[in-house]
Design a protein that fits this description.
Number of domains: 4
Helix content: 40-55%
Distance between the termini: 58 Å
Strand order of the largest sheet: 2-1-3-4-5
CATH architecture of the largest domain: 3-Layer(aba) Sandwich
Structural class: alpha/beta
Number of helices: 18
Radius of gyration: 32 Å
CATH superfamily of the largest domain: P-loop containing nucleotide triphosphate hydrolases
Length: 466
């Protein structure tokens, strides 16, 4: 039942006078009453109006109430829709047949409006309980699926040597509660690794709270992470417990931790040292037992040297480091990933794409994947714009063809002059990142794994005016 509106009743009766009387009396009792004068009309209206209960007359020409009842119950959408039969007959066999067909209650004509109202209220309460139970069962199933491995590391796709090493480190990290730092380029699946650690650990039944540090508004970072007290600042109309408190007894995943300002870094260090948070505007600390898993696509060693990241915090969060390898370093996994994504997209879009042909697989394997696995799923999904697609071919792939070719390091001992200077290689790499990011410096910095300020200096020093 939708509590944001009046209970909506559909009344079905072939006698117009009866409809008017029932509608008038029930409207006065606070219901929204919609009328239908026949079974077919009622069936046509059901999906459009989504009633909370149906009052159905038993005796009607053409399609009687029993037949209409059977048709209503055929649809799974009406599983929790209560139906009260209205009848002038006192026929026990008909009542039994009605209950067997799916009726929930009977009211005899002429009815007492108080009795009818009481029966409607009872049926609506039962409907509400059934819906709540169904939602609870679905949530239990979802949580059970998670605990059985939906998010465990075994579902991270890969059989290459580098991925087997990642699996081993995830397995080890799941046995302890120490902080973990996950490094790697954008799109390599760092959050998936974090989820694998959490859902393979004894904390699996507790909350997993992901936080994109780069997306937190600067003025609200401390409030979001550590909470605030009512009146702490303009707009703080009530107490807010914060993300660390939400993740109590579980795991908080701090993605792009290198983007946290120094003030927030200092408070985060205190959480690690004291196991407590102090809400903004608060005077008392609140104990939290929250595991921290962090991720970054920048070089934190370099950030420490540049003074952008606290050295003491770096050592506290990097008890265990896991590197998410870029896709170009695990190309033997490409066929597995492609198969997995096609199966997923076929299910999502109700399609039956069989796979990729030899030309497509050759192109996918040769490609450098600057956007990593995230780029791959986008490339495969873009193929689904072809409505009659059976096999994905090279012509269907939207790989970036206009990129400046990556300059390779030559290892030809007979031609040492072919070695490029380090600065030339770096310049070419930066130019390529700018093209990939459509000249967006923030995106290019993330692709390169460096801070924006460092990229600005490089652009200036190499006179790259893209």
């Amino acid at each position: 039942m939708n509590t944001k509106r009046k209970p909506r009743l559909l009344v079905v009766d072939d006698e117009e006078d009866n409809l008017k009387v029932v509608q008038s009396r029930l409207n006065r009792r606070g219901y929204e009453v919609i009328c239908a004068s026949s079974g077919p009309e009622a069936l046509e209206m059901l999906d459009k109006i989504s009633p909370d209960l149906v009052l159905l007359d038993y005796m009607m020409p053409e399609m009687d109430g029993l037949e209409t009842l059977a048709k209503i119950k055929e649809s799974v959408n009406n599983e929790f829709l209560p139906i009260i039969m209205l009848t002038a007959k006192d026929d026990k066999e008909s009542m039994i047949l009605g209950f067997e067909t799916g009726a929930d209650d009977y009211v005899h004509k002429p009815f007492d409006v108080d009795e009818l109202n009481a029966r409607i209220q009872a049926m609506l309460r039962i409907r509400s309980l059934k819906l709540a139970l169904s939602n609870s069962e679905q949530e239990i199933k979802r949580l059970t699926d998670e605990l059985k491995g939906q998010f465990q590391y075994k579902n991270i796709i890969g059989s290459s040597e580098v991925m087997r090493e990642v699996f081993e480190r995830i397995k080890g990290a799941a046995t302890i509660t120490s902080p973990v730092i996950i490094t790697g380029e954008s799109g390599t699946g760092k959050e998936l690794i974090a989820r694998g650690i959490h859902f393979s650990s004894p904390k699996a039944a507790k909350p997993f709270v992901p936080v994109n540090c780069a997306a937190l508004p600067g003025e609200l970072i401390e409030s979001e992470l550590f909470g605030h007290k009512k009146g702490a600042f303009t707009g703080a109309v009530g107490d807010y417990k914060g993300l660390f408190k939400r993740a109590h007894e579980g795991t908080i995943f701090l993605d792009e931790i290198g983007e946290l300002p120094k003030e927030a870094q200092a408070k985060l260090l205190r959480v690690l040292q004291e196991g407590a948070v102090r809400p903004v505007g608060g005077t008392e600390e609140i104990k939290v037992n929250t595991r921290i898993i962090a991720a970054t696509n920048i070089d934190l060693d370099e950030a420490v040297e540049d003074g952008r990241f606290r050295e003491d915090l770096y050592y506290r969060i990097s008890v265990l480091t896991i590197e998410a390898p870029p896709l170009r370093h695990r190309k033997s996994d490409i066929s597995l990933l492609v198969k997995h994504f096609i199966e997923k997209l076929n299910k999502d879009f109700n399609r039956s794409v069989k796979g990729v042909d030899d030309s497509a697989m050759k192109a996918l394997t040769a490609y450098d994947w600057p956007g990593n696995v995230r780029e791959m799923i986008n490339v495969i999904e873009s193929c689904y714009v072809y409505p009659d697609l059976e096999w994905i071919s090279e012509k269907h792939l939207r790989l970036r063809k206009n990129l400046k070719k990556k300059t390779a390091i030559h290892h030809d001992r007979d031609n040492p002059e072919e070695f490029l200077e380090l600065e030339e290689m770096e310049k070419a790499h930066i130019e390529r990142a700018m093209v990939l990011a459509d000249n967006n410096k923030a995106k290019a910095a993330r692709l390169l794994g460096i801070h924006r300020s460092r990229l600005y200096k490089k652009l200036e020093s190499y006179d790259i005016g893209l």
